[in-house]
Write a structure and sequence with these properties.
11 strands, disordered N terminus
Length: about 250
């Protein structure tokens, strides 16, 4: 299948694929970080918002929330889930917000969908332009130097008579600015078994490189990838939450 074909063609299965994600805990954690580091405002934009589950929680927290994504079927689902929100079809590497934002988020490692360092720089610049003074940009990321190609995650979900098995894992060659997210979906029922495989190209960056890119625009704080507690990054783990305050 072509790049991002699975993401596009199986958009109706996306929520099922992510059924084990605690969107409420993730959203609440970033809300807390915004209360600590932010400017007190309530305008919010979610980059790569998918079907809008995080946007739903931020609206419920009292934000004027919006989202953008490159996938229209995802946005159609998001608009049904969050009729109060504005959703736009845009590339996060080069976007414009409808108004200045107090908080911009990018969950589920989607910052890596900036395919290459130049697009990542463009994304960071777009975020900086879209934020109000004292606004913050929050996202999670993986350090390319900490990726173990042998590791993957797997979970199962049922829908009617179908059993789905979802697998995903990072892959990095060890050099360069490209890594990938390898995905597979197996759909089994009494009549047949179907298998989809896809590989999404993504930007590979170390935390040192990422922090240097951000430092030109933001005051950068890095925390452990823990949505239950706010813990400073230990400088060793390969996953982290970045909180970037506009200078």
């Amino acid at each position: 299948m072509s790049v991002n074909a699975l993401y596009t063609d199986l958009s109706g299965y996306y929520d099922l694929m992510c059924v084990d994600i605690d969107y409420q805990a993730q959203s609440h954690s970033i809300h807390r970080l915004h209360q600590i580091f932010g400017n007190g405002g309530t305008t919010h934009l979610d980059l790569a918002c998918g079907t809008g589950p995080h946007v739903r929680h931020f609206i419920d927290f009292g934000y004027a929330s919006s989202g953008l994504d490159i996938n229209q079927p995802m946005l159609d689902i998001a608009a049904t889930r969050c009729p109060e929100a504005l959703f736009t079809l845009q590339d996060m590497s080069d976007f414009k917000a409808n108004e200045p934002q107090d908080l911009i988020t990018c969950f589920l490692y989607s910052i890596h969908y900036s395919d290459g360092i130049e697009k990542l720089k463009a994304c960071i610049s777009s975020v900086h332009c879209a934020l109000k003074s004292g606004g913050i940009f929050c996202f999670n990321a993986v350090d390319k130097d900490k990726i173990d190609n042998a590791l993957s995650v797997k979970h199962h979900a049922k829908q009617a008579n179908d059993l789905f098995t979802f697998r995903s894992g990072w892959h990095y060659s060890g050099q360069g600015e490209k890594q990938s997210l390898r995905l597979s979906i197996e759909k089994t029922n009494p009549e047949s078994t179907q298998l989809w495989n896809d590989e999404h190209p993504m930007v590979a960056v170390s935390f040192a490189e990422l922090s240097a890119l951000l430092a030109a625009h933001f005051e950068v704080h890095v925390f452990e990838h823990n949505y239950e507690k706010i813990i400073p990054w230990d400088n060793a783990s390969g996953n982290a939450i970045f909180v970037c305050v506009k200078k």
